[in-house]
């Protein structure tokens, strides 16, 4: 680990690497977050339009229950698309390449934006539904392949930094989507379709230079066996004068290509006992990130702010403020990943989030009996969001690229992304019902999830910062008998 550090004292931020990092993050990750965040604020206006459109087209009026069911379908079909896109990410990444997957995402996002923009003029609820499904496919593909692509084009010293770009981009996109869907911007009865499709501007700007983007050198070398092309792409990324660094990376790729772990299909990865523990870690981190309650917190925060005495409008602005705090802390992610150990950050983040979630449940239960508990609950929500972005937020996005070597990596990242979208769907469907049944205690399972993730990290996650995956993989190859500390 020490020698690796010495060879990378000055991280290789070449112009091409900067272009790839920021263009793919804004074009892919921010667009994904945007599609998540934009749908909530104009929901009442869109429900009215859906009901009127169905009446005009089919002569039917939906009941309130039927309208709620239709809206749930519009929201959840995005998550279904995300799960399918994640599942297809492994095959697409290995067959077409990492860069090609990014281009496919851009095409899907573009089709979705066109459907969103014209669905109101065409008086078609079906176009809205299909558009949400298509951008869900694109978003699932982004979360499965973008962190992998960025970590594979980065030098070792920058892999954690670039790995967290996707998480920051999704968080930022949610905030941008919330802003664009405000009533003062595009969140009106006449302009909501502009809000849904406004991310197309990002797609155009960020995909224009995509012909300059390199393919992943590791993909070319290890998966495709094209040594010459891999060397050419490395020279473009690192610069012609970085011969020593390029030779070192090529030697690492050669060692990985000759290693025993060359399984790349879903069945092979699932059957390989050496990959069981890292696969469990990746899936638990991704699923646990959703089951830690972040989406439920944002779902519930408006009503908490209202209980604290804010008007509905001010509560919505306060909710936006919570989203901005989430984004602001996430911007520390690249620095934290460069200088802090993954194990320490993840355990600290999980422990603090668990404490704040338990406190939120306690305070909410007695909120009507103690006057200052409303303010205390707001502080706990902000505290939870603050510590969430130290580890729970960013680390699940890229931990698979640090635990797995290139051949099985795409399957692992797809499985993790699938776990994330599936758990997101479960929370979206079940949280309102559980909230009605359990009241304040609905936050206790989230707190327990954080405790379990903390224990999983403590006993089974090896430290990956500054280590090549070929060094890390043997540490977790004995399953739950592995001694990772």
From TrEMBL:
Domain of life (superkingdom): Eukaryota
Cellular compartments annotated: Membrane
GO MF annotations in UniProt: hexose transmembrane transporter activity
Source taxonomy: Eukaryota, Metazoa, Ecdysozoa, Arthropoda, Hexapoda
Protein name, as recorded: Solute carrier family 2 facilitated glucose transporter member 1
Bilayer topology term: Multi-pass membrane protein
Source organism per UniProt: Drosophila madeirensis (Fruit fly)
Family that this chain belongs to: Belongs to the major facilitator superfamily. Sugar transporter (TC 2.A.1.1) family.
Pfam families, sorted: Sugar_tr
An annotated GO cellular component: membrane
UniProt domain Major facilitator superfamily (MFS) profile: residue ranges: 21-465
Annotated keywords: Glycoprotein, Membrane, Sugar transport, Transmembrane, Transmembrane helix, Transport
Transmembrane annotation, as ranges: 69-93, 100-123, 129-150, 162-186, 192-213, 320-338, 345-367, 373-399, 411-431, 437-461
């Amino acid at each position: 680990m020490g020698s690796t550090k010495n060879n990378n004292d000055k991280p290789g931020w070449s112009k091409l690497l900067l272009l790839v990092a920021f263009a793919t993050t804004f074009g892919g990750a921010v667009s994904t977050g945007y599609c998540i965040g934009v749908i909530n604020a104009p929901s009442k206006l869109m429900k009215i339009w859906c009901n009127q459109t169905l009446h005009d087209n089919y002569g039917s009026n939906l009941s309130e229950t039927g309208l709620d069911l239709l809206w749930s379908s519009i929201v959840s079909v995005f998550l279904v698309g995300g799960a399918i896109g994640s599942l297809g990410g492994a095959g697409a990444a290995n067959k077409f390449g990492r860069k090609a997957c990014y281009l496919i995402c851009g095409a899907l996002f573009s089709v979705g934006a066109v459907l969103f923009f014209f669905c109101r003029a065409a008086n078609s609820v079906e176009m809205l539904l299909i558009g949400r499904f298509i951008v869900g496919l694109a978003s699932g593909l982004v979360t499965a392949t973008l962190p992998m692509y960025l970590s594979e084009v980065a030098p070792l010293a920058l892999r954690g930094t670039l790995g967290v770009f996707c998480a920051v981009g999704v968080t930022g996109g949610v905030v941008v989507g919330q802003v664009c869907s405000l009533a003062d911007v595009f969140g009106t009865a006449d302009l909501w379709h502009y809000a849904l499709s406004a991310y197309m501007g990002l797609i155009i700007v960020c995909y224009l230079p995509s012909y300059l983007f390199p393919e992943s050198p590791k993909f070319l070398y290890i998966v495709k066996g094209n040594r010459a092309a891999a060397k050419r792409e490395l020279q473009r990324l690192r610069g012609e004068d970085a011969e020593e660094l390029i030779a070192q990376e090529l030697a690492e790729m050669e060692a990985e290509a000759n290693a025993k772990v060359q399984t790349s299909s879903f069945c092979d990865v699932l059957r390989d006992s050496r990959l069981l523990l890292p696969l469990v870690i990746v899936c638990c981190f991704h699923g646990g990130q959703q089951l830690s309650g972040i989406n439920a917190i944002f779902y519930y925060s408006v009503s908490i702010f209202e209980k604290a005495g804010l008007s509905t409008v001010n509560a919505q602005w306060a909710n936006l403020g919570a989203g901005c705090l989430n984004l602001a802390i996430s911007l520390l992610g690249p620095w934290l990943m460069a200088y802090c150990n993954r194990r320490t950050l993840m355990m600290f983040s999980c422990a603090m989030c668990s404490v704040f979630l338990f406190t939120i449940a306690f305070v909410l239960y007695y909120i009507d009996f103690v006057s200052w508990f409303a303010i205390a609950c707001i502080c706990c929500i902000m505290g939870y969001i603050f510590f969430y972005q130290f580890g729970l937020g960013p680390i699940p996005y890229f931990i698979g690229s640090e635990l797995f070597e290139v051949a099985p990596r795409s399957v692992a990242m797809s499985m993790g992304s699938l776990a994330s979208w599936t758990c997101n769907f479960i929370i979206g469907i079940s949280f309102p019902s559980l909230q009605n049944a359990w009241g304040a205690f609905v936050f206790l399972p989230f707190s327990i999830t954080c405790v379990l993730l903390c224990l999983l990290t403590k006993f089974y996650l090896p430290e990956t910062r500054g280590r090549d995956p070929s060094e890390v993989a043997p540490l977790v190859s004995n399953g739950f008998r592995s001694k990772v500390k």
